[in-house]
Amino acid sequence: MPECTNPVWPCALTGAAAFLAGFRGLSVVIHGSSGCYYYPRSLIKAPLFGSFIMQDEVIFGTGDRLRSVISDVSKDSERVAVVTSCVPALMGEDLASELDGFSALLIDSPGFLGGAEAGYRIASEVLLREATVTTEGVNIGGICLLDPFHRGNLHESRRLLAMAGIPVGAVISYDRLDALSRLAPVTVYANPDYTASGYEGGTLLGFSAIKKTFSSLSGDPSSVLAECDWAEEMVIAVCEKYLRRNDPPNAAICSQAGYAGFFADLLVRYLGSDTPLILRRNETDLPAVTDYDQIADALHGDSYNLIIGSSYEAQMKPDAGFVGVTPPIRGRIVIGSRPLAGIEGVITAVEMILNALMDKKKRV
Amino acid sequence: MISNRSPIDISRSEGCTLTGVLSVTGFLDDAVTVIHGPSGCTHHNASLLYASLAEIDSFDLPRFISSNVLEEDVIFGGEDALLHAIDAAEALDPALICVVSTCIADTIGDDTAAVCRKPRGIPVVYIPGSGFLGGGFSEGIKNALLSLIPLSPSMASSPEEGVMIVGEKNLEYEADENFDEVSRLISLLGLHTGLRFVRRMPAPACQRISVAPLAVLRDPSLEPVGSALRERFGTSIISGFPIGPDGTLNFLRSLGESGGIDSLPAIRDEEGHLEDLYDTFSDLSGLSVTFDPKSANPGSADVAESMIQVLGMKKTASGHLLPLPYDPPVGTAGTKRMLHAWRRSLSRA
Q1: Is A18 helix (H, G, I), strand (E, B) or coil?
Q2: CA–CA distance, B34 with B194 (Å, rounded to integer)
Q3: Contacts of B58 in chain A (CB under 8 A)
Q4: Fewer CB atoms inside 10 Å of the end CB: C or N, chain B?
């Protein structure tokens, strides 16, 4: 991969730490320098520990330092997870043997392996190896502390599953650690970019996906399907009203792939937009676009009047309407539990789009 | 949450060397910084600077180019990736390219300095920035300033150049207010501030570093930078911004001595200014207060101690716990802000 100017997306270490920090009862130790600790700590609103290794440890081995930190951390936690940063990962030490005698897991997720989603997946593979399927029902997946919508997505996913009479197994990852001993066989994903392999059961982004997912689950989907129809009527009504006085928006979306597809579908289906420009933060079958200059060039290539992304993009196109869905979202307060998943998620997304467009019109 | 940290071993926890370097090079206008390491290191720091700048309503993100070291570079070496990144920086035609190494670049043994020596039409400066291999945040600031000094040829100093300010804490929320206060004090002696090395400074201005006859360091910890300026160019050095009222008067005295100026009138002026300040806060006299010296910066604690005495407050174990500023208050203006914070805190008690 070529060089990259001001990359706008966190590394695998951060994604792994975010996955693990979602489990209460599991203490997360970032095994690396203070620099590798402070950034995840600033993004993930949960306790994290650090080994803060230094030069001597890099030369003579980090094992003693790691054991000393885990020994301290273990006093107050059921379980410890150690995430390695770049340098310890390539020093060739047998860190697994340093964890002998502790109830600790080793997650090898250095930043050079990729973006946050890669780290989330690596950590989930290690932790879920210990999980056992013992419960009927459905797990809620795709919950990540890095996602500004994770709490809203969780609440809405629970609500829909309850409507269908489906018990929730574990929430991945926003649960107690012992929830892994009562995993359900299937997982529905609120954000499909934060996946844990082996438990696929569909996503909850958009009416079509919700209907398809609930029709394939074991519960009674009738209430959910009926609410989808009601909500879709409402969405169509507000969008049609907007379009009586306005042209369809010309949008650019800069977000994770799943959210990008979700917003693109809403814009085309309900607001008559042409297919929006999509610059994905994470790699799928298409490459990620995380280079600040590349994003700026792409956004300046057309007269977009709606930007769905982070405050980086809002700053690049200050005259466009802005919907903040991708971190960082600065200059506005976001502490409520708004969803993008589920029926309320569609409603919220449409509401955010129309309000952004109308606010922009008022400014002009 | 920090684990197992020795209180005397601040280098473990004070932050990354790379962040310190970038807090300097990111404030050099017309320069591009190349960071030799995984893109995550660059993202972490770009994001931190973006957040810090947004706090002061500045949204001009400095340009950082990552060599984007990946797994195969870790195995086979990352110098080619670095060369490509420097080529990309050169294509932008900046006035200066700063190349910063990271932990991983140094650990895999890439010779970043050698790659920087390839002749180019634009000056390329190598700055050591590997996190735990080279100290912490403060070390990064020093590394960056020391690496930029050689860009200046030795030239005769000129009083017209003004007083150079060295090593401002660019991520500090009150950085500009502290600069304004220092500028005000300097002006009391009929002098003016010159280069801000480095805060929003054009990169070509690095060539004028030698011309400044007098420099004020932000903090005594920058003494190695002061020594380099003194030894290389004969620059007179004031070792830190003035802290509290006593520090302010001493600062004026030192400035006068270094500049060959009679500082007494300026000191008398400032003493009058301080008397006015104490009068303004005479309502705090007699109040029972305390502060926690263990969690305070020693400089802030010293100023607090002297203000409690000057204002006639009573320090008792059960007194109201006073808030102390994270960084020691700079000059009279900083002291005034601290006293306002005390009054607000006492009024809520």
Answers
A1: helix
A2: 28
A3: none
A4: C
Measured between its terminal Cα atoms, the distance across chain A in Å is: 41
Report CB contact under 8 Å: B44, A91: no
Chain centre distance of CA B14: 14
Indicate yes or no: CB of B4 within 8 angstroms of CB of A69. Answer: yes
Which of B82, B98, B113, B99 has its CA nearest to residue B198? B98
Q: Which residues, numbered 328 to 347 in chain A, qualify as contacts with chain B under a Cβ-Cβ cut-off of 8 Å?
A: 328, 330-331
Instruction: For residue B173, count other CB atoms closer than 10 A to its CB.
Output: 13
Which residue segments constitute the domains of chain A, with CATH numbers given? 12-128 (3.40.50.1980), 138-221 (3.40.50.1980), 225-363 (3.40.50.1980)
| Angstrom distance (rounded) from CA B186 to CA B194 | 11
CATH class of B159-241: alpha beta
- What are the tokens at B35? 């960071």
Residue A38 has pLDDT above 90, yes or no: no
> Contact B136/B16 with Cβ under 8 angstroms?
yes
Q: pLDDT tens across B221-255, in order?
A: 999 999 999 999 999 999 999 999 999 999 999 99
Sign, CA torsion A129/A130/A134/A136: negative
Integer Rg of chain B from CA: 22
Compute the distance between CA of residue B263 and CA of residue B269 in angstroms, rounded to an integer. Answer: 10
CB nearest to A39's CB, from B5, B39, B48? B48
Confidence of residue B123 (pLDDT cuts 50, 70, 90): very high
CATH architecture group of domain B10-151: 3-Layer(aba) Sandwich (3.40)
Q: Which of A41-50, B57-66, B256-265 has the lowest mean pLDDT?
A: B57-66
* Amino acid B11: pLDDT: 53
- The predicted-structure confidence for B18-74, as pLDDT tens digits, reads as follows 999 999 999 999 999 999 999 988 998 888 888 888 777 777 788 999 999 888 888
pLDDT tens-place string over residues A298-348: 999 889 999 999 999 999 999 999 999 999 988 778 889 999 999 999 999
- What is the residue type of A231? A
* Chain-chain contact of A57 with B66 (C-beta, under 8 angstroms): no
Closest partner CB to A49 (pick from B1, B43, B74): B1
- Positive or negative torsion for Cα A354, A355, A356, A362: positive
Is the ipTM value over 0.85, yes or no?
A: no
pTM above 0.90, yes or no: no
In chain B, ranges of CATH 3.40.50.1980 domains: 10-151, 159-241
Contact between A298 and A277 under an 8 Å Cβ cutoff? The reply is yes
Exposed e or buried b per residue across A125-162, where buried means at least 16 C-beta atoms within 10 angstroms of its C-beta: ebbbeebebebebbbbbbbbbbbbbbbbbbbbbeebbe
- The helix or strand, by DSSP H or E, that contains position A308, with its residue range, turns out to be strand A306-309
Q: What H or E segment, with its residue span, contains residue B269?
A: helix B264-280
CB contacts under 8 A, A 269-298 vs B, are 290, 292-293
Average pLDDT, integer, range A233-239: 96
Asked if the bond preceding A173 is cis, omega within 30° of 0, the reply is yes
**Minimal Cα–Cα distance from A300 to chain B, Å?**
17
